[in-house]
């Protein structure tokens, strides 16, 4: 695997991790509040959301990067 490909894969993994962690936590809190169920529900939502976010980021990351470069010119 080329360094550029590795960087893209790592970026997709890290960005999807952070975004999934934050959004699943926020929306779980929004639905349940900070109850005793919140942490368990957050973990479950994150466990389902992160793989999906990673696949999505991996698939659309490069085309969106190219589009952003064109728009920034």
Summarize the structure.
The protein contains two helices and no strands. By secondary structure, it is mainly alpha-helical. Helix 1 crosses helix 2.
Detailed description of the structure:
Helices cover 89% and strands 0% of the residues. The chain has two helices and no strands. The protein is elongated, with a radius of gyration of 15 Å. The chain starts with a helix and ends with a helix. The model has no long low-confidence stretch (mean pLDDT 92).
**What share of residues are in beta strands?**
under 5%
Question: What is the typical, i.e. mean, pLDDT?
Answer: 92
Gross morphology: elongated
Distance between the termini: 30 Å
Unreliable spans are none
Largest sheet properties = none
Give the H and E element order: HH
Radius of gyration over all CA atoms, rounded: 15 Å
Helix tally equals: 2
Structural class: mainly alpha
Give me the count of strands: 0
Helical content band: over 70%
Furnish the topology, listing elements before pairings.
Elements: H1 3-32, H2 38-72
Question: What would the keywords be for this entry?
Answer:
single chain; 73 residues; mainly alpha; 0% strand
């Amino acid at each position: 695997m080329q360094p550029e490909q590795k960087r893209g894969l790592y970026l997709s993994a890290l960005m999807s991790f952070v975004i999934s962690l934050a959004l699943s936590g926020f929306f779980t809190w929004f639905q349940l509040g900070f109850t005793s169920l919140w942490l368990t529900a957050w973990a479950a939502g994150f466990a389902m959301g992160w793989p999906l976010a990673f696949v999505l980021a991996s698939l659309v990351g490069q085309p969106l990067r190219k589009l952003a470069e064109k728009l920034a010119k």
